[in-house]
Design brief:
101 residues, alpha+beta, four-stranded antiparallel beta sheet, 3 helices
Amino acid sequence: MRIIVFFDLPTITAKDRREYSQFRNGLLKEGFIMMQESVYTKLVLNQSIMNLVKVRIKKIMPSSGLVQSLVITEKQFSSIENCVGEYKTNFLSTTERLVIL
């Protein structure tokens, strides 16, 4: 089983940024790995460990913001399809004096 944690936390004040950092570091200490910027995942062996991890997440949760968790099977997790696009930029690297767009 996998636990996937999604979070959207405020980072406006210094207190918000500190709580964000503490929560993120807490997830890393719990053994979570980052999938995307605010998406972390952890492999758990059984239901009782999953329940324990959920309790620990609730203990380190910040006072504000949104934290969500999703439990999926390893088979479902292995079917994730990663699509990576091409990075585009508007920067022109040229030495010509006249550039026609």
